[in-house]
Amino acid sequence: SEILGDYSSEYNEAFTITASADDSKSGVYSVELKYRNKESESDDWSDWLTYGSPITIEPYEWEFETTASGYYQVVSVAKDKADNEETASSNRAIEFKFDMVPPSLDSADLITSENVIPKVKITVSDDLELDTLYYSYNQSEWFEMEDNINDNTFTTTWTMDDDDWSDMIGGDSKKLYFKIVDSCRNEYISTAEESLLIVKGENASSYYIDVSDFSEWHWDNKFTISVRFPEELNVKSVTLYYKYSKNNKDWPENYTVYDNK
User: Fold this and answer.
1) 175: exposed, middle or buried (C-beta count within 10 Å: 0-12, 13-18, 19+)?
2) Which of 208, 139, 133, 197 is nearest to 167 (CA)?
3) Which residue, 91, 183, 221, 225, shows the most beta carbons closer than 10 Å to its own?
4) pLDDT by residue (tens digit) across 140-155?
């Protein structure tokens, strides 16, 4: 026997598997569908199990569906009227991921005040494997945050783009939404209740200094600091000052000039 047709490498809903069988001597008595699975790629395969009931009359078709997300191998096994039966073998099997369960938004917490550029700590998860994370203002357009996550849990910090923050004036607000997509294309979009209200305070400064590079891992000790100013200002030069302490306790009284641009 053999499974007929072409199949996808991933499914998030029930689909039909069709097999054919032939026996030139005693004839085909029945065809079974066997499967084995595992929860992750690194796990060992389970033993072969029977899916549904044996079929004795063509067409040999099964509607495959399961609530157990994971990796699957599926093969047809025929028995003839002389009671001879094929052996289930991965060499004849089709292989795919199956997941009908959408990912979830576990937490999304605003960790800054309304007077500074907004940051949100977000944790998402999936019962099988996460793929892509997006954000949107008022669900008008989706922007990719992270791709090829390839894990079942993921925590990251979203920071509003400098230009988006600069475009807001004091008192403006936006609703922030997240969309999560898993490796089988199931989606979860945060609800209106889960959306975060981003407000730019009336006293928010138009000046912005970005020192986020200090929180990133580096091969060397070189870091980038960037500064933004309101467009209406005619800035001629910018000077960077610093203080240094060996123990984070004893600091000099005065700042030292690092550079002028």
Assistant:
1) middle
2) 208
3) 183
4) 899 999 999 999 999 9
